[in-house]
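>> received
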Amino acid sequence: MHDWLSPDAERAAAILEAHPDYRVLRSLPPLDLVPLPEPEGKLRTAAILDTETTSLDPATGHIIELAICQVKFDARGRIVAIGPAHDWLEDPGYPLPREIVRLTKLTDADLAGQRIDDVAALDLLSNADLIVAHNASFDAVWIERRYPAVAGKPWCCSLKDIDWRGFGYEGRQLGALLAEVAGFFNARHRADADVAALVALLIAMLPSGRTACSEMILSAQRPTVRITADGAPFEVKDRLKARGYRWDPTIRRWWSEVAVTNADEEQAWLAAEAACHNPTIEPLTWHRRHRA
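>> returned
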């Protein structure tokens, strides 16, 4: 029985769960009620965070909400302790775009006069061994732009550093994974709620017998290479896209990230199928990954 739900509700849920035509989702519980394993080996700290912003561009937009929760994880990569969640709002100095109001439910009145505590936020980030976000390629750019002192710190991405489809899960959005993997729903789309949802997701056990956090850390630690298809002609763009390459509008090149062991095979494919004979090869680790 889940302690944060009423006995009557749990009995009704148990009846539905016993029927093959029903699946029960429970409201995301307070994190201090989530059961955690006994730690094994050395403990390290992760800062799990989420940002809400006024736009997709950190060069012109502003962070309007930042939530950070430090957790402890053990030698097996399992979360074994959860610290308090910290959440700050910030007034960007101009009216919020209508789409941001719709998405976050934040209003200009909510943000008026508010300011992120940069000293406290930087302390939480600096004292962590690694930083975690669900789509770190978005959050890392904003965070490192605002807090240059943590640039180069290891990042993990719960979206990309776990092979969700390989484990049989169709969705990759945080809400969909929270429901499918952990059996919870989260009705709020705010930074603090998303951080709580991500912590609950990372605690969940996957078919591998390891937690999502363990799988994420194992994957993130493996070195990869970023291959940029320099000189590939325009007419092969569809082949590159079908192969999984992404377009970088800044350098106007197609690129992909592959395992070190697959680098030679990928270079051979580029030469044979994309007329690209001199790609740029850049080694990546979690100190650099998710920044592009």
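>> The mean pLDDT is 93.
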